[in-house]
Write a structure and sequence with these properties.
This protein has 474 residues and is mostly helical. Helices cover 74% and strands 4% of the residues. It has helices spanning 2-13, 16-32, 36-39, 41-47, 60-71, 74-87, 90-115, 129-137, 142-158, 163-177, 195-212, 216-244, 249-260, 275-293, 300-304, 312-342, 354-366, 371-403, 408-424, 430-454, 456-469; strands at residues 118-119, 125-126, 184-188, 191-194, 263-265, 271-273. The chain has a two-stranded antiparallel ribbon. The chain has a two-stranded antiparallel ribbon with strand order 3-4. It is globular and about 60 Å long. It starts with a helix and ends in a 5-residue tail after the last helix.
């Protein structure tokens, strides 16, 4: 019953209008910013390590790491697997489309967040889509800003910030330490939970609580150290898979493109085409793509707002690299590894889900016993998801701060509730937590994308002014 209700809500939120809105936003911003994700990408990567000067609380690199800490997570390992399992290999193609257009979206939303941010008397900075909507579109649109902030709190508390992350961690821990689920701690209804799940969940909850109480600066310090290291480890694993299976990559790409456009084998060896397959691939690919890179979601601008800079365009460039790193590199490695395994008839994937499917596919590709891959995935996923928990606590706190006019008493209460949500996350199914996350993500994206389309002229104007001011950077 609960699953049926969630699925119906998900189908409504992620219907054709939302998909069209998100893709249209990226396309409009790509045109208005003159293809900035293509023409200025090299400059954007150079900008990451530039020393920032100006008002703010964080360096540009710290802000990018904070944003990446919230994006490089279960979406890259579990989310890609669930998208392919539900929407077919073609879902990966639609993740790419969403990411390419989303790079321009990420640039625009982060740039606008700095332009419309508020610097308090004590130097404290608050910014994000709520201020972009209120200040950029005008006070009469404050209701839309409030709506975004409410959805942001819900996304952090119930979706992408807590339950999906802790669920992914404990699933990986259980896969590594008790793959047969033989050591049952307790049973609720038809679901049984192992000691590995219970202990893993408790340890992560405790560690998250210790960092969350420390606030933004502690979160950013953890992110600066953990994000680059964990990304390199996972990229090494992904590259190993692709190098060892280089001759199989063309077949994997062929399957991805056929599936994306609804072509599949039918009776008699012919090729059939189905609208349903295209719709499912688009829905799951775009939804999981946004889950992974958060372009258009409105979260990264909240991390970008406190950056020490007086040039909004510069931080927009820095943050747009996050979408490239997250989806076009990390998710692609995961997705290709899974699809390469799918291309082999001897690969048994039926019944596998989430991290279990990813681990099985990568182990199959590497030809080992799977144990080493399981443990490596467990470590990567644990760090990925843990930093995502921290990043989303920060995002949702800032949304709450906007809603309560900065009353920190409410923020402290929220931190306790957030930690409790982490604690109960392991006891939902993978499908349930991802469906909840998809719903809250879609609700966040709608008001944010509306504002970006309305303010696309400002994006074009600011971008042109910056590169006219610094012609050598053009």
């Amino acid at each position: 019953m609960f699953d049926t209700i969630l699925n119906k809500i998900d189908d409504i939120v992620w219907g054709v209008p939302t998909i069209v809105l998100i893709l249209a936003t990226g396309l409009i911003l790509t045109i208005r910013a003159k293809g900035i994700q293509f023409t200025k990408l090299g400059r954007a990567f150079k900008q990451i390590f530039k020393k920032n000067e100006g008002q703010g609380e964080l360096s540009g690199f710290s802000a990018l790491c904070t944003a990446l800490s919230a994006t490089i997570g279960t979406g890259n390992i579990v989310g890609v697997a669930t998208a392919i399992a539900a929407g077919g290999p073609g879902a990966l193609f639609w993740m790419w489309v969403a990411a390419i257009l989303g790079t321009a979206t990420k640039y625009a939303e982060c740039m606008l967040a700095i332009k419309y941010r508020e610097v308090k008397e004590d130097g404290h900075v608050l910014g994000g889509p709520f201020y972009t909507i209120e200040k950029g579109m005008g006070p009469k649109w404050k209701w839309l800003a409030i709506l975004f902030a409410v959805f942001g709190v819900l996304a952090g508390l119930l979706g992408i910030g807590t339950m999906t992350q802790i669920n992914g961690i404990t699933s990986a821990v259980n896969m590594a330490f008790d793959p047969d689920s033989s050591n049952i701690a307790f049973t609720i209804g038809e679901n049984s939970y192992t000691w590995a799940t219970v202990i893993g969940g408790a340890v992560v909850t405790l560690c998250a609580a210790l960092v969350i109480i420390g606030g933004l600066k502690r979160i950013s310090k953890v992110a600066e150290k953990v994000v680059p290291a964990m990304a390199l480890i996972y990229v090494f694993l992904g590259l190993s898979v692709l190098i060892m299976n280089a001759t199989k990559i063309p077949a994997a790409f062929a399957l991805i493109f056929k599936s994306a456009f609804g072509f599949k084998a039918v009776a008699g060896g012919a090729i059939g085409w189905t609208i349903k397959q295209v719709t499912e691939s688009m829905q799951k690919g775009i939804a999981r793509g946004i889950f992974s890179n958060e372009a258009g979601l409105g979260s990264a601008p909240i991390a970008a707002a406190p950056v020490q800079t007086n040039e909004p365009v510069e931080q927009g460039l820095v943050n747009m690299t996050g979408t490239v790193i997250d989806t076009l590199i990390v998710c692609t490695m995961t997705g290709l590894g899974i699809v390469i395994a799918f291309c082999n008839p001897s690969f048994e994937w039926a019944g596998k889900k989430g991290v279990e499917l990813t681990a099985a596919a990568l182990s199959f590709d590497l030809g080992g016993d799977g144990i080493s891959v399981q443990f490596l995935l467990m470590l990567c996923l644990a760090f990925f998801a843990f930093t995502t928990i921290l990043g989303w606590d920060y995002y949702s706190e800032k949304c709450l701060e906007y809603l309560t006019n900065g009353h920190m008493k409410f923020v402290m209460i929220y931190r306790v509730i957030y930690i409790l949500a982490i604690a109960i996350g392991p006891y939902f199914t993978v499908k349930q937590v991802f469906t909840i996350a998809d719903i809250t993500n879609g609700l966040m994206a709608i008001p944010n994308c509306i504002s970006l389309i309305v303010l696309s002229g400002i994006v074009a104007k600011e971008t042109k002014a910056y590169f006219d001011k610094y012609p050598k950077l053009a």
